[in-house]
Amino acid sequence: MSHIYLIAFDGSNASHRALAYGVERARASGARLVLAHVLEWSPYSFLTAEELAERHKRRNQEVGRAQDIILKPMEEKLTREGVEVETVVRYGHVAETLCALAEEFEVTQIIIGRTGDSSLQKRIFGSVSVTLAQAAPVPCTIVP
Predict the structure, then answer these.
(1) Alpha-helical segments (H) within the chain
(2) Burial code of 85-113, b = ≥16 C-beta within 10 A, e = fewer?
(3) Tens-of-pLDDT digits for all 144 residues of the chain?
């Protein structure tokens, strides 16, 4: 069985640590990587038809920007280094979207970096890493 690791990547220090961890494991096991960038988006707003059209246009622009600025440079770098990698940008709640991507790409593990944010809000409402640790459909590695 071929291993596929889904790595949440947003260009932050935490995501770079997760990527380094994932690349190291991929090289050791021959796994393939899927780098995912999730743009937070709430579908719960009441908009007119014109506002919906404008929002759709902005979403497409944001997806293109995320792909070009955040994921494409890493994909090119990893490909040059001989790592098999694919990228994906999606809108939604980060943890829920990563869980859906794990099932869509049939990954064997999710890898995410921990930001170290210990704010009261994060402790009350939870963080992406905490949610993934509880809800992920596959093993989830949280890289400190």
Answers:
(1) 13-29, 49-65, 72-80, 94-104, 120-125, 128-135
(2) bebbbbebbbbebbbebbeebebbbbbbb
(3) 689 999 999 999 999 999 999 999 999 999 999 999 998 866 656 667 787 777 778 888 888 899 999 999 999 999 999 999 999 999 888 999 999 999 999 999 999 998 766 555 455 445 788 889 889 999 999 998
| pTM beyond cutoff 0.70 | yes
* Neighbouring C-beta atoms of residue 119, cutoff 10 Å: 9
DSSP code at position 90: E
CATH fold group of domain 4-143:
Rossmann fold (3.40.50)
